[in-house]
Structures are given as structure tokens and as C-alpha cells.
Amino acid sequence: MNRIRTAVIGTGFMGRVHLEALRRVENVDVVEIAATSADKAKAAAAGYNVLNATGDWRDVMADPSIDAVHVTTPNVSHYEIAKAALEAGKHVLCEKPLAMTVAQAQELTELVMAKKLRGGLCHNLRYYPMVQQMRRMREAGDFGDILVVQGTYSQDWMLYESDWNWRVDPLVSGHSRVMADIGSHFFDMAEHVTGLKVTDVCSDLQIFWPTRKQPKDGGESFSGKLGGASETVDTKVVTEDFGATLFRMGRARGTMTASQVSAGRKNGLVLEIYGTKGGATWRQECPEELWLGHRDAPNQILLKDPSLLDEKARAFADYPGGHAEGYPDTHKQLFRRFYASIADSALTPDYPVFADGLRQMKMLDAELTSHKNRAWVSVPA
Ligand SMILES: NC(=O)c1ccc[n+]([C@@H]2O[C@H](COP(=O)([O-])OP(=O)(O)OC[C@H]3O[C@@H](n4cnc5c(N)ncnc54)[C@H](O)[C@@H]3O)[C@@H](O)[C@H]2O)c1
User: Fold this and answer.
1) Which of 38, 101, 112, 231 is buried deepest, with most CB atoms within 10 A?
2) What is the Å distance from ligand 1's center to 12 Cα?
3) Ligand 1 mean position to 234 CA, how many Å?
4) Would the CB of 34 count as within 6 Å of ligand 1?
């Protein structure tokens, strides 16, 4: 099989996660890294043994030998970079959210189809083995008809007034913060696992810190928790620290919260589903366990072990039982499938695509409108 040549744009938290995961995908070579300066790109390229480095992502688009790009920059640039890549004939693996607006996401979704290229979206959290197990058990009817879907995505890294990140700036991040940043992962997973679509939402958002102390020298994601910020300026905050959404999935009903101010919760994504026959709960902070709830028998904890998983879920568990697979493995699983679909143009994507990103943007819009109007809002199909 021909090897696929790819480039990674952005060298922050996600850039490094993508670079590491790409080394675990068999048919791919990372041939260029783009950062905000040539020096930063060169440092990353040296560390990851990548030949080319540039301080301008446009150089990547101008190289016809590059087949695909990974967009790992802050949200505001996703649309422009993804569009340029598609126009240059390159496949795109974009971090979430796909774009800043529904219109931009719609345009990218249409463009990727018109160009007959692959457009993957990094809702990687679907690919924990035990999330896949929950999905396959639901498909097999083990839980019966789904009645209730509950959960949260709770973190604590923005708890203090002094916590800052580009995500607070709506010009860089968008009009929503926690619902866009982490609530979208919850909804992507909830729909993926249940097979149901969210039809209506009723949301309440809250800003606990109307101003935050913005460091004059910026800072990458999560770096604020390590302290050391120098001078700060008081900056007005217009995006939510916390959000709660009631939702309907046809007959099923659900609730979720998303928070960046929940002390002690580091990456607390929890998905609970309850059906007419049984229930299940998965927690990202204990990703190897799936809780199975029964009404007329003792509940169970299923520990990840490929030999105990549904055959289709097993394809996401590469290591034997007791050998934990976590967050970095979810990227590997997603990227592996993305590149398989580039190598074989006949394959139907079995990973989140741009249309899923467009759906998340529509859902987000509905949540923001609901909060503003203090009313239920339908999510367009
Ligand atoms: N899928 C996930 O689990 C997950 C987790 C975290 C972040 N994300 C997404 O990844 C993206 C990046 O987030 P992050 O946490 O890595 O942020 P980050 O601040 O850690 O890194 C962003 C990097 O992009 C660089 N950058 C900015 N503009 C650039 C440009 N024009 N060209 C090249 N580089 C540029 C910055 O210098 C920085 O190094 C966001 O869209 C975010 O929503 C996804």
C-alpha cells in the first residue's frame, strides 16, 4: 500500500496528541509541521523526527506531495485552514468544533463532498473500548428501548478567576465555551451510543466570573493550572463557565451538564443510559469499566478485556485485559480508520465526519437560542 503523507498544523496540546497518535498509524508519515513561528515548528519537527517545518500553514497547502492535513489550531482558524486544504485537494482531519458558525460548517461539509475528499472530525472520545461496548450492547437490544440519557462533562481547570485560556475569547473560541468545548463531546457520544438524535433542547448557561485575569503573555491549554502567570489584565467574560441542557431524543428524555468550574473533576465525562431492560454507565475518569445496571439481578462491573467484549467493540481494544487503554488510544483508533478510508476510497467512513461537526454546530446554536429565549428549541435535522 502507498504510504500517505500528512502534515500537522498547530503544536499545542492537541498538536502533540495528534503527532504522537499518528506515529501509531501504520500507513502514514508526518512530513511537515506548521506552527505560529518557524522556530516553534522546527523545535516540534526535531522532537518528532519530522523533516519539514514552517511558520506558515499556507506552505503546507502549496506542497502537492502532501495528501492530508490535521488542523489542531484554536477554533477560529479551523474554517480557513480546512477550506484551503480541501481546495488544495487534501484530506482534512479537523479538531472540533468544525468551524465558528453553522454557515461555515455547512460550507465545509458541502465542499468536502464536492471535492470527493475525506473530512474527519476529532470526536475521538467515542473510541474508548468500553464506550464501543456500550454502543454494541445497545444495538444488540441488551438495554431494551432507551428511555433516559443522563450525564455530564465536568472539569475544574477554569475554576479560579485567575484561570485563562484562548477559549475565553469569543473571537478565538466562538460564542459558547463549555457547551462547544466539552458539551459537544457529550452529545456526540450520546447520539453515537444510543443511535438516537437529539430533537429538542432547553438550556441554561451561567458565567460565574464576569471578568477574568488574562495573562499578558497568553498560555496554552491547561497551562494556567501550573501557575506562574506574570502580569494580568481584567478582561470581560461573555461565554459560559457552566451549562445545563434538558433534551429530548424522540420518546427518550435526557439531561446533561457541562462545567469547567467543578472542583476535583479533571475530565469527568459521564454517560448513563437507561432502557426498558437495563442500564449502563461509563465514566471517562475510569475508562476501563462499564457499569451494567439490572432491576432484578445484582448490578455488574465489566472490566475491559477483549475476550469479554462484543466482537465489533473488540476492534477498539488492542491490548489484553488489565492493560489500560485511554485517551491517546482513542485518537489512534480514529486516525487509523480515517487513513484506511483514504487508502481505500470505497470504504464508508466509520469515524465522525464533517456532517457530524455541522450537526454539533446546529445543536450548539439551538442551546444558545434556548438560553437566550428561556425556551425549548428544536434542533434542525
Ligand atoms: N478532541 C479533543 O479531545 C480535544 C481536546 C482539546 C482540544 N481540542 C481542540 O483542539 C484545538 C486546539 O486546542 P488545544 O487545547 O490544543 O489548544 P492549545 O492552545 O494547546 O494549542 C493550539 C496551538 O495552535 C497554535 N496556533 C494558533 N494559530 C495557529 C496558526 N495559524 N498556525 C499554526 N499554529 C497555530 C498555537 O500557537 C498553539 O500552539 C481546539 O479547536 C480544541 O477545541 C480537542
Assistant:
1) 112
2) 5
3) 24
4) yes
State the Cα–Cα distance between residues 190 and 122, nearest whole angstrom: 15
Q: How far is the CA of 235 from the centre of ligand 1 (A)?
A: 21
> Which sequence spans correspond to the domains of the chain?
4-117, 125-323+360-373
* φ/ψ (deg, to 5) at 243: -145, 150
Q: Is the CB of 73 under 6 A from ligand 1?
A: yes
162 lines ligand 1 (CB under 6 A): no
Residue 72 CB less than 6 A away from ligand 1: yes
Assigned C-alpha cell, 237: 467574560
Tell me, what's the pLDDT at 1?
Answer: 54
Element (H, E) at 121: strand 119-121
Return the CATH class of domain 125-323+360-373.
Answer: alpha beta
Query: In sequence order, which residues have a C-beta less than 8 Å from that of residue 28 and are 6 or more positions away?
Result: 3, 4, 5, 6, 22, 335, 339
Longest pairwise C-alpha distance within the chain: 63
Q: Please report where in the chains the cell 489550531 appears, as a residue.
A: 73
**8-32 per-position pLDDT tens digit:** 999 999 999 999 999 999 999 999 9
Using a 6 Å cutoff on CB, does residue 173 contact ligand 1?
Answer: no
Return the ligand 1 atom nearest residue 57 CA.
Answer: 32
Q: Would you identify the CATH topology of the domain 4-117?
A: Rossmann fold (3.40.50)
Q: What is the pLDDT of residue 217?
A: 76
Amino acid at 268: G
> pLDDT by residue (tens digit) across 149-179?
999 999 999 999 999 999 999 999 999 999 9
